Amino acid sequence: MPKPFQFTTGSLIYAQGEDADRIFILQTGKASLVYRDMETGDDVRDQVLPGEFFGVKSALGRFPREENAIALTDSTALAFTVSEFETMAMSNTRIVLKMLKVFSTQMRRIHTQVSRLVESAEVRPEDGLYAIGERYLKLKRYSHAKYVFSRYLAHYPEGRNVDQATKNLEVVEVALALGNDPGQARGRGQRR
Predict the structure, then answer these.
(1) Is 20 strand, coil or helix?
(2) pTM of the entire structure?
(3) C-alpha 64: how far from its chain's center?
Protein backbone atom coordinates (compact mmCIF):
# COMPACT_ATOMS: atom_id res chain seq x y z
CA MET A 1 0.00 0.00 0.00
CA PRO A 2 1.53 3.38 -1.02
CA LYS A 3 2.38 5.65 1.90
CA PRO A 4 1.86 9.43 2.03
CA PHE A 5 4.88 11.49 3.07
CA GLN A 6 4.86 15.14 4.13
CA PHE A 7 7.70 17.45 3.04
CA THR A 8 8.28 21.01 4.24
CA THR A 9 9.39 23.79 1.90
CA GLY A 10 13.01 23.29 0.85
CA SER A 11 13.32 19.74 2.15
CA LEU A 12 15.05 17.02 0.16
CA ILE A 13 12.71 14.26 -1.02
CA TYR A 14 15.61 12.20 -2.37
CA ALA A 15 19.20 12.87 -3.40
CA GLN A 16 21.23 12.10 -6.49
CA GLY A 17 23.14 8.87 -6.05
CA GLU A 18 20.72 7.31 -3.56
CA ASP A 19 19.32 3.85 -4.19
CA ALA A 20 16.01 4.24 -6.03
CA ASP A 21 13.47 2.01 -4.35
CA ARG A 22 10.41 4.31 -4.42
CA ILE A 23 8.31 6.08 -7.05
CA PHE A 24 6.45 9.23 -6.01
CA ILE A 25 3.21 10.87 -7.08
CA LEU A 26 2.87 14.44 -5.85
CA GLN A 27 -0.52 14.95 -4.19
CA THR A 28 -0.21 18.55 -2.96
CA GLY A 29 2.35 21.32 -3.25
CA LYS A 30 5.19 21.72 -5.73
CA ALA A 31 8.52 19.97 -6.14
CA SER A 32 11.55 20.38 -8.35
CA LEU A 33 13.87 17.85 -9.95
CA VAL A 34 17.40 19.24 -10.20
CA TYR A 35 20.00 17.63 -12.46
CA ARG A 36 22.95 18.61 -14.65
CA ASP A 37 22.48 19.50 -18.30
CA MET A 38 24.69 17.16 -20.35
CA GLU A 39 25.52 19.90 -22.83
CA THR A 40 26.39 22.79 -20.52
CA GLY A 41 26.94 21.19 -17.11
CA ASP A 42 24.51 23.74 -15.64
CA ASP A 43 21.77 22.79 -13.19
CA VAL A 44 18.36 22.20 -14.78
CA ARG A 45 15.20 22.42 -12.71
CA ASP A 46 12.04 20.62 -13.81
CA GLN A 47 8.95 21.48 -11.79
CA VAL A 48 6.63 18.73 -10.54
CA LEU A 49 2.98 19.62 -9.93
CA PRO A 50 0.18 17.72 -8.15
CA GLY A 51 -0.83 14.56 -9.99
CA GLU A 52 2.61 14.11 -11.58
CA PHE A 53 4.95 11.27 -10.77
CA PHE A 54 8.73 11.33 -10.40
CA GLY A 55 11.58 8.99 -9.61
CA VAL A 56 10.22 6.42 -12.06
CA LYS A 57 13.18 5.80 -14.40
CA SER A 58 15.70 5.19 -11.65
CA ALA A 59 13.36 2.99 -9.60
CA LEU A 60 12.11 0.89 -12.53
CA GLY A 61 15.64 0.57 -13.95
CA ARG A 62 17.12 -0.15 -10.50
CA PHE A 63 19.64 2.70 -10.96
CA PRO A 64 20.70 5.22 -8.34
CA ARG A 65 18.89 8.55 -8.52
CA GLU A 66 20.14 10.85 -11.31
CA GLU A 67 18.68 14.01 -9.78
CA ASN A 68 17.77 15.69 -6.51
CA ALA A 69 14.06 16.01 -5.73
CA ILE A 70 13.27 19.06 -3.59
CA ALA A 71 9.97 20.28 -2.14
CA LEU A 72 9.38 23.85 -3.35
CA THR A 73 6.41 24.28 -1.00
CA ASP A 74 4.93 22.23 1.82
CA SER A 75 4.00 19.09 -0.09
CA THR A 76 2.53 15.63 0.21
CA ALA A 77 3.62 12.74 -2.03
CA LEU A 78 2.54 9.14 -2.22
CA ALA A 79 5.51 6.78 -2.20
CA PHE A 80 5.09 3.49 -4.05
CA THR A 81 7.41 0.53 -4.03
CA VAL A 82 8.27 -0.63 -7.54
CA SER A 83 5.91 -3.58 -7.29
CA GLU A 84 3.06 -1.35 -5.98
CA PHE A 85 3.60 1.07 -8.86
CA GLU A 86 3.71 -1.72 -11.44
CA THR A 87 0.45 -3.15 -10.08
CA MET A 88 -1.21 0.28 -10.21
CA ALA A 89 0.11 0.95 -13.74
CA MET A 90 -1.16 -2.43 -15.00
CA SER A 91 -4.67 -1.55 -13.89
CA ASN A 92 -4.55 2.11 -15.00
CA THR A 93 -3.60 2.73 -18.63
CA ARG A 94 -3.87 6.48 -18.03
CA ILE A 95 -0.73 6.27 -15.84
CA VAL A 96 1.12 4.36 -18.56
CA LEU A 97 0.13 6.94 -21.19
CA LYS A 98 1.25 9.77 -18.90
CA MET A 99 4.61 8.02 -18.39
CA LEU A 100 5.04 7.62 -22.15
CA LYS A 101 4.38 11.34 -22.68
CA VAL A 102 6.94 12.29 -20.02
CA PHE A 103 9.56 9.90 -21.39
CA SER A 104 8.86 11.08 -24.96
CA THR A 105 9.44 14.69 -23.92
CA GLN A 106 12.68 13.75 -22.17
CA MET A 107 13.89 11.78 -25.19
CA ARG A 108 13.15 14.74 -27.48
CA ARG A 109 15.16 17.04 -25.21
CA ILE A 110 18.08 14.60 -25.16
CA HIS A 111 17.88 14.15 -28.94
CA THR A 112 17.97 17.93 -29.41
CA GLN A 113 21.00 18.27 -27.14
CA VAL A 114 22.86 15.44 -28.85
CA SER A 115 22.03 16.88 -32.28
CA ARG A 116 23.39 20.27 -31.24
CA LEU A 117 26.56 18.69 -29.91
CA VAL A 118 27.06 16.72 -33.13
CA GLU A 119 26.37 19.73 -35.34
CA SER A 120 28.58 22.10 -33.31
CA ALA A 121 31.79 20.43 -34.44
CA GLU A 122 32.95 17.64 -36.61
CA VAL A 123 34.26 15.20 -34.06
CA ARG A 124 35.90 11.94 -34.89
CA PRO A 125 34.18 9.04 -33.08
CA GLU A 126 37.42 8.27 -31.26
CA ASP A 127 37.69 11.83 -29.92
CA GLY A 128 33.98 11.96 -29.08
CA LEU A 129 34.13 8.75 -27.06
CA TYR A 130 37.21 9.94 -25.20
CA ALA A 131 35.54 13.33 -24.48
CA ILE A 132 32.51 11.56 -23.00
CA GLY A 133 34.83 9.66 -20.64
CA GLU A 134 36.53 12.92 -19.66
CA ARG A 135 33.15 14.53 -18.97
CA TYR A 136 32.05 11.67 -16.71
CA LEU A 137 35.39 11.82 -14.91
CA LYS A 138 34.99 15.57 -14.35
CA LEU A 139 31.47 15.01 -12.99
CA LYS A 140 32.81 12.21 -10.72
CA ARG A 141 30.50 9.68 -12.36
CA TYR A 142 33.23 7.09 -12.04
CA SER A 143 31.29 3.97 -13.02
CA HIS A 144 30.22 5.71 -16.25
CA ALA A 145 33.77 6.96 -16.88
CA LYS A 146 35.16 3.45 -16.35
CA TYR A 147 32.76 2.02 -18.90
CA VAL A 148 33.55 4.71 -21.49
CA PHE A 149 37.35 4.58 -21.07
CA SER A 150 37.23 0.76 -21.23
CA ARG A 151 35.22 0.94 -24.46
CA TYR A 152 37.64 3.56 -25.83
CA LEU A 153 40.64 1.30 -25.15
CA ALA A 154 38.85 -1.71 -26.66
CA HIS A 155 37.81 0.11 -29.83
CA TYR A 156 40.89 2.32 -30.29
CA PRO A 157 43.90 0.39 -28.93
CA GLU A 158 46.17 2.51 -31.14
CA GLY A 159 44.21 5.76 -30.64
CA ARG A 160 45.82 9.08 -30.00
CA ASN A 161 44.39 9.26 -26.43
CA VAL A 162 45.37 5.74 -25.32
CA ASP A 163 47.95 6.87 -22.75
CA GLN A 164 45.65 9.38 -21.10
CA ALA A 165 42.65 7.02 -21.29
CA THR A 166 44.74 4.36 -19.53
CA LYS A 167 45.76 6.85 -16.80
CA ASN A 168 42.16 8.03 -16.41
CA LEU A 169 40.96 4.44 -16.14
CA GLU A 170 43.45 3.84 -13.31
CA VAL A 171 42.20 6.98 -11.50
CA VAL A 172 38.60 5.84 -11.95
CA GLU A 173 39.29 2.33 -10.65
CA VAL A 174 40.92 3.75 -7.51
CA ALA A 175 37.94 6.06 -6.94
CA LEU A 176 35.52 3.16 -7.37
CA ALA A 177 37.55 0.95 -5.02
CA LEU A 178 37.27 3.71 -2.42
CA GLY A 179 33.48 3.90 -2.96
CA ASN A 180 33.58 7.48 -4.23
CA ASP A 181 30.95 7.17 -6.99
CA PRO A 182 27.48 8.51 -6.05
CA GLY A 183 26.28 7.48 -9.52
CA GLN A 184 27.57 3.90 -9.44
CA ALA A 185 24.87 1.29 -10.04
CA ARG A 186 24.72 -1.05 -7.08
CA GLY A 187 23.86 -4.69 -7.51
CA ARG A 188 23.33 -4.50 -11.30
CA GLY A 189 26.52 -6.19 -12.30
CA GLN A 190 27.74 -3.58 -14.36
CA ARG A 191 25.24 1.90 -15.84
CA ARG A 192 21.69 7.42 -15.31
Answers:
(1) coil
(2) 0.55
(3) 7
Q: Do residues 70 and 11 touch, judged by C-beta distance below 8 A?
A: yes
Q: How far apart are CA 57 and CA 69, in angstroms?
A: 13
- What is the pairing mode between strands 12-14 and 68-71? antiparallel
Q: Within the chain, how many helices (H) and strands (E) appear?
A: 6, 8
Q: Give the residue from 190, 185, 119, 118 showing the smallest Cα distance to 131.
A: 118
- Can you tell me whether residue 54 is helix, strand or coil? strand
**Per-residue pLDDT tens for 4-41?**
999 999 999 999 999 999 999 999 999 999 988 766 77
Model confidence over 117-139: pLDDT tens digits? 666 656 688 888 999 999 999 99
For the CA atoms of 187, 3, 25, 38, the dihedral, rounded to the nearest 10 degrees, stands at -30
Task: Tell me how long the chain is.
Answer: 192
Say how far apart CA 165 and CA 150 lie, in whole Å: 8
The distance of Cα 31 from the centroid of its chain, to the nearest Å, equals: 17
29-82 residue pLDDT tens: 999 999 887 667 788 899 999 988 899 888 988 889 989 999 999 999 999 999
CB 14 within 8 A of CB 48: no
With both helix axes pointing from N to C terminus, report the angle between 125-138 and 162-177 in degrees, rounded to the nearest 10: 30
